[in-house]
Amino acid sequence: MAAPMELFCWSGGWGLPSVDLDSLTVLTYARFTGAPLKVHKVTNPWQSPSGTLPALRTSHGEVISVPHKIITHLRKEKYNADYDLSARQGADTLAFMSLLEEKLLPVLIHTFWVDTKNYVEVTRKWYAEAMPFPLNFFLPGRMQRQFMERLQLLCGEHRPENEEELEKELYQEARECLTLLSQRLGSQKFFFGDAPASLDAFVFGYLALLLQARLPSGKLQAHLRGLQNLCAYCTHVLSLYFPWDGAEGPPPRQTPAGPETEEEPYRRRNQVLSVLAGLAAMVGYALLSGIVSIQRTTPARAPGTRSLSMAEEDEEE
Amino acid sequence: MSKVPFIHVGNQVVSELGPIVQFVKAKGHSLSDGLDEVQKAEMKAYMELVNNMLLTAELYLQWCDETTVGEITHARYGSPYPWPLNHILAYQKQWEVKRKMKAIGWGNKTLDQVLEDVDQCCQALSQRLGTQPYFFNKQPTELDALVFGHLYTILTTQLTNDELSEKVKNYSNLLAFCRRIEQHYFEDRGKGSSSIRSS
């Protein structure tokens, strides 16, 4: 019997099964088709067989790391969500995926990795806390640089004079794209009727990240929240296909008490430990350098305290 | 320095397809007014598909396929400049294009894979067009203009290998579409310029 397929992907957070767009897309597609995957949720890309996430190890040991190719492989293994689509719907899928890549992807990258507030308070925070030592010191920064370079190359030719203009234009196009998606979805359950297809996996990936992450600077999020059918679509997919993962974190509207109480025992413990360590270091230094000396004999208590005060005067001088 | 194509109206210069379409729309002429919302969404999506696949494939062929680069592109790109500027600029452009290809994931693609993608794109366009005269039935829209522009260029530009134009020729309805537009809108421009019939 061939080994089962294994999927390595970024682990979950913010109420989602994964925090990374590509990992989320592949996971969703696998859930749609019921593909029997052994999922390894990791926080260290070096643990993946290809060094990047997501990565699929097929039953023959081959490793695939491009999301489109992973989905193509699953299709070949007869886990095909697009089986019932007509030729015209297949063509529409290709067209809408291009639309997503051209209009939504740059803004998604910008929102999570370039916008300073979001990056520091949400993205970097998650990655730095999730990754093991010592990766958490340099890997998030490196990822940010890679994403920024990618964004620059993606929008290279359309570069107007300054950053703000570019940003405004990007967000304008993304808002239009979301509105177009909303119009195309209409009141259907999925983009092509009642059963999900690969396009749904891709769209869900973008929408879920934009909706669920608690972004301090969420301009696109506000627009998306106004498109009721897309929000309902997102919640529907989450509750239907990720009932356990989706319940891990709190819904976005509540005050951020959820994940912080989980971290709190560790934080408190860390705080106490660091204070104790600091105290021990200070006392040890004081004792060793003679600033403070402890006299054991009781009558010598007075001279002990006197030497303490003299030593303190020395220190002040 | 503005980019080609551009239109010059009074003292305004508007360049590239998107802004030109917007400009003309602001003057009260729009080809897509008759479309409903869902159709407009589909039109935008297909335009992105063409930009994403056809345009990138054309760039790839021009700058990443060694034979084409050596025989045609370098000379053509560098021709307005004196030596050694012509070589330097051509190499610089090639390096830039290769970087962009890598960023969008096309860096490791072979020519065959690129042609495969072009075929997929043409198949999608062919299926969407079906037996209609234009993509949204009776009236041409911006999508028709964009598709015609790309396909016509692919069919009529002489390159070192004809595989790209062969891929397009596999789809008879796309060929018919191009001929129809050429005859209907360009036949009074004179028969001197290259036409699809001669290739």
Automatic annotation (TrEMBL), chain A:
UniProt-listed InterPro entries: Glutathione-S-Trfase_C_sf, Glutathione_S-Trfase, Metaxin1/3, Metaxin_GST, Mito_Protein_Transport_Metaxin, Sam37/metaxin_N
Subcellular location, record wording: Mitochondrion outer membrane
Domain of life: Eukaryota
SUPFAM superfamilies reported in the protein's UniProt record: GST C-terminal domain-like
Any Gene Ontology CC annotation: SAM complex
Residues annotated as domain Metaxin glutathione S-transferase: 174-236
Stretch forming the signal peptide: none
GO biological process: mitochondrion organization; protein transport
Pfam families referenced in this protein's UniProt entry, alphabetically: GST_C_6 (PF17171), Tom37 (PF10568)
Transmembrane spans: 272-294
Every Mitochondrial outer membrane transport complex Sam37/metaxin N-terminal domain range: 23-144
The entry's keywords: Isopeptide bond, Membrane, Mitochondrion, Mitochondrion outer membrane, Protein transport, Transmembrane, Transmembrane helix, Transport, Ubl conjugation
Protein family membership: Belongs to the metaxin family.
Function according to Swiss-Prot or TrEMBL: Involved in transport of proteins into the mitochondrion. Essential for embryonic development.
Protein name per UniProt: Metaxin
Organism ancestry: Eukaryota, Metazoa, Chordata, Craniata, Vertebrata
Gene that encodes it: MTX1
TrEMBL record, chain B:
Domain (Mitochondrial outer membrane transport complex Sam37/metaxin N-terminal) ranges: 3-94
All residue ranges annotated as the Metaxin glutathione S-transferase domain in the record: 119-181
GO cellular component assignments: SAM complex
Subcellular location: Mitochondrion outer membrane
GO biological process annotation, one example: protein transport
Keyword Mitochondrion: yes
Family: Belongs to the metaxin family.
Chain's role: Involved in transport of proteins into the mitochondrion.
Descriptive protein name: Metaxin-2
Organism expressing this protein natively: Ursus americanus
Lineage summary: Eukaryota, Metazoa, Chordata, Craniata, Vertebrata
Gene from which this protein is expressed: MTX2
